[in-house]
Design a protein that fits this description.
The complex is a heterotrimer of chains A (207), B (148) and C (383).
Chain A: H1 2-28, H2 34-66, H3 70-92, H4 115-124, H5 129-139, H6 144-159, H7 174-206
Chain B: H1 2-23, H2 27-35, H3 44-47, E1 51-56, E2 60-65, E3 78-87, E4 92-97, E5 107-112, E6 117-122, E7 127-135, E8 139-147
Antiparallel strand pairs in B: 1-2, 2-3, 3-8, 4-5, 5-6, 7-8
Chain C: H1 2-10, H2 14-33, H3 42-65, H4 69-95, E1 99-100, H5 102-106, H6 117-127, H7 143-157, H8 161-164, H9 169-175, H10 194-209, H11 213-218, E2 227-228, H12 233-257, H13 261-265, H14 268-276, E3 282-286, H15 296-300, H16 308-313, H17 325-329, E4 335-339, H18 348-382
Parallel strand pairs in C: 1-2
Antiparallel strand pairs in C: 3-4
The chains are: A mainly alpha (207), B alpha+beta (148), C mainly alpha (383).
Chain lengths: 207, 148, 383
């Protein structure tokens, strides 16, 4: 649970950095006040949580089917962690990250009530390296409940970054905070790379 | 206002000077005061936890500590129980441990000091594996992993 | 001509320099010897005398020559190497190995260093305990005294701790002086935010795992102090990381860039000390009236604390560690030590004298123990 939380906390900052500027106007546009913002944000987060639970279920069943062999179970996740962690580090380097959030497609939606739900859907299905890592983790858990817990921890970690979104306009050094968040994402990638390497080497040595 | 800022700055700088001058002679006293703060105690994950029971035999004492499940915000599902053997220990020894004081033995740990080998036989599902088993300055210490 | 004018203003006469050194002589004599110098062991007595002379000669020269950085660096580098010698020597004597064992961790015998402090904060607040296998009070490098030393030094010196107190900084400071010209000249400004990212990650991981993760996994200085025994894949990975980071960030990159890359790009304590620069009484100021915008100070700054924009705006950033390199490099004396509240360009000598006394005194007394120990060891080796 700890590393899922850490992954969420570190990658959520980069996610916010790219998607925040798209979502913020939609969360703010036409708002009557704090209550409207809270409702929109809640809908957005609930949608993300629902999608993550579906992904947790799918990844676990997929893992059960694929990782039944002990050797595969020991070695393949290690390799996957390394690949996705490298992608996460690559993703954290500014020029490699697409400046646009996938959520920009939501601009075409006219119904304002659907917008937070659609934003949550698109944001959670935005296949970024962090999501690949948590999918790998979900697939390797012993029980379905453990997979849910991993995704829940990832959701909590990443959602914390969205909570101050309504106050974003008042924060002065956004660029500095954004850069720190993105560097932290790269570091999370390195952590998972080391975890993957340790798992892989341990798996090879043990059989 | 400018003069006030200058005077305040110089006073703050001299306060810094005094702090540095008294820092080293007063270090012991300051350290003792700091050590008495409520959070200045080592986490049980490092100390091994409080001693729950002592079993005293002829040449050695066995300290069985309380199980440690400390977590950050709440207790963790996985933890350990630490045992310390103090005194003159035989080359091989074996002890059955009831760590939760329910009258039933939970596991049996055997230690071969010559070969630095330890074995564990758990009597229930909560007992997992030996985390650490090592000679110490006072004798021998072992930690056995537990789950709630 | 300009350089001569500048040093003529900052430097003092022999007599005046000696007068300024007198308080340092008295205080260091008291603090280093405890008021009762012990010459029963000739080697120990001689080592103490050598250190006493070293610190006071350096301080005297700071006033006599008007220079700061190189003289500071001599003591700073010797401190770093002495501390490593002291720790390694103790380890080899007691344990016959540079690595600590599981027993050392169980018995909470690990010496505490200030780099652990950021990781302690959240667990201390939430669990009311310290997540480090050390000694709270008593013994070598106990937690309470290191916390007191760091807190006071940080309040007074701010990020100046990184150039006047940290017993690791001398390593990359030393390696950054190996070459005359940098091989790598252009480095992105973004990297100097990395310590904040590292700080965020170590605080989070340490709180969640209740383990000092920076120390366990990525401290480069484990390569020159002590580390966990290599008994598994995990501990072997850790050892590999320590050695790689030391080799890369402490040796190779400082040599190639002439910058203190470990301090600038990794150290999480540096990030906290950077923030504390906002409260310290001592600063470095830019006198815009004297500044010719030659940007020599920007080139020489080892911690990326100065940019051209900073010079134009007349404000030194909070990354400044007050090492004095820019002050020594400036031919117009436009960049100088200052005190908060005093306008730039005024009371330069007063500010410099006061700052030097405070910072050098801290460094001299803090470093004396390990340097005496090292000199004592070397003297015993020679004689």
């Amino acid at each position: 649970m700890t590393d899922s939380l850490i992954l969420g906390l570190s990658s959520g900052s980069a996610c916010l950095a790219t998607c925040g500027m798209v979502m913020f106007p939609y969360l703010m546009a036409g708002s009557a006040g704090v209550k409207r913002i809270a409702i929109d944000l809640s809908l957005f987060l609930i949608t993300r949580l629902a999608v993550y639970f579906v992904l947790a279920t799918l990844s676990w069943y997929f893992g059960q089917a694929l990782f039944s062999n002990t050797v595969v179970r020991n070695i393949v996740p290690g390799i996957l962690y390394i690949i996705f962690a490298v992608m996460l580090v690559w993703y954290s380097i500014g020029k490699n990250r697409k400046p646009d959030c996938p959520a920009k497609i939501v601009k075409t939606v006219n119904n304002h009530r659907l917008v937070p739900i659609l934003l949550g859907l698109v944001n959670s299905l935005g296949f970024c390296p962090a999501l690949f890592i948590i999918l790998t983790k979900g697939a390797t858990q012993g029980t379905l409940v453990q997979s849910y817990i991993a995704f829940l921890a990832f959701f909590i970690g990443s959602s914390i970054w969205f909570l101050p979104l309504p106050l974003a306009g008042r924060i002065r050094k956004k660029e500095v905070l954004k850069n720190i968040g993105i560097l932290a994402t790269g570091l999370a990638g390195i952590i998972f790379m080391i975890k993957g390497l340790t798992n892989l080497i341990g798996g090879i040595i043990n059989g | 206002m400018k003069k006030v800022k200058i005077i305040a700055g110089i006073c703050w700088a001299f306060a810094g000077l005094i702090l540095i001058i008294i820092l080293f002679p007063g270090l012991n006293a300051f350290s003792v005061s700091v050590s008495k703060l409520s959070f200045m105690k080592l986490n049980p994950r490092y100390t091994g936890g409080e001693i729950s029971r002592q079993i005293i035999s002829e040449n050695c004492t066995l300290d069985i500590r309380k199980p440690v499940f400390n977590g950050f915000l709440k207790e963790s599902n996985s933890g350990f129980v630490q045992m310390d053997w103090r005194g003159t220990l035989p080359e091989r020894f074996k002890d059955s441990i009831d760590y939760d004081n329910d009258g039933k033995k939970d596991f049996c740990i055997s230690v071969n000091r010559t070969e630095s080998k330890s074995d564990l036989v758990g009597f229930n599902d909560k007992v997992k594996k030996i985390l650490i088993s090592t000679p110490t300055s006072y004798g021998w210490a072992a930690r056995v992993g537990l789950e709630k | 001509m300009d350089n001569a004018l500048k040093t003529a203003v900052m430097r003092k006469s022999f007599g005046k320099s000696l007068l300024y050194t007198l308080p340092m002589i008295l205080i260091t004599f008291m603090f280093i010897s405890g008021g009762k110098p012990n010459f029963s062991d000739p080697a120990s007595g001689l080592a103490m005398l050598m250190v006493f002379l070293l610190v006071n000669v350096l301080y005297f020269l700071m006033h006599f020559t008007g220079k700061t950085d190189r003289l500071r660096a001599i003591l700073f580098i010797i401190f770093a190497m002495s501390l490593s010698y002291t720790l390694i020597h103790n380890m080899l004597e007691v344990r016959k190995s540079m690595s600590f064992s599981e027993a050392d961790i169980l018995e909470c015998k690990i010496p505490f260093c200030h780099l652990v402090i950021p990781m302690m904060i959240l667990p201390a607040a939430f669990t009311k305990s310290i997540i480090f296998p050390g000694s709270i009070i008593g013994g070598f490098a106990n937690i309470s005294s290191m916390v007191v030393l760091w807190v006071v030094a940080t309040i007074v010196l701010g990020r100046g701790f990184c150039s006047w107190g940290c017993f690791y900084g001398g390593w990359d400071d030393g390696f950054s002086r190996f070459t005359k010209r940098p091989v790598i000249k252009k480095i992105s400004e973004l990297w100097k935010l990395m310590p904040f990212a590292v700080l965020l990650m170590v605080i989070l991981t340490a709180a969640l795992t209740l383990m000092p993760t920076y120390c366990s996994w990525i401290c480069p200085f484990k390569a020159v102090t002590e580390f966990e025994q290599v008994t598994s894949v995990e501990s072997a990975t850790k050892a590999g990381i320590f050695l790689s980071l030391f080799g890369g960030l402490v040796v190779v990159l400082p040599v190639m860039t002439k910058k203190r890359t470990q301090c600038s790009f990794l150290c999480p304590l540096g990030a906290i000390n950077t923030l504390s620069n906002k409260i310290t009484p001592f600063t470095v100021k830019i006198d815009k009236n004297s500044c010719s915008e030659c940007y020599k100070c920007v080139d020489v700054c080892p911690l990326f604390a100065l940019t051209r924009e900073d010079i134009k705006s007349g404000k030194v950033s909070m990354f400044c560690s007050k090492c004095g390199k820019c002050v020594d490099a400036c031919s117009k004396q436009a960049i100088h030590y200052g005190i908060r509240g005093i306008p730039a360009g005024t009371m330069k000598n007063f500010s410099r004298n006061l700052f030097l006394f405070v910072s050098f005194l801290f460094m001299a007394v803090f470093s004396a123990g390990s340097i005496i120990n090292t000199f004592h060891g070397l003297l015993k080796l020679i004689f």
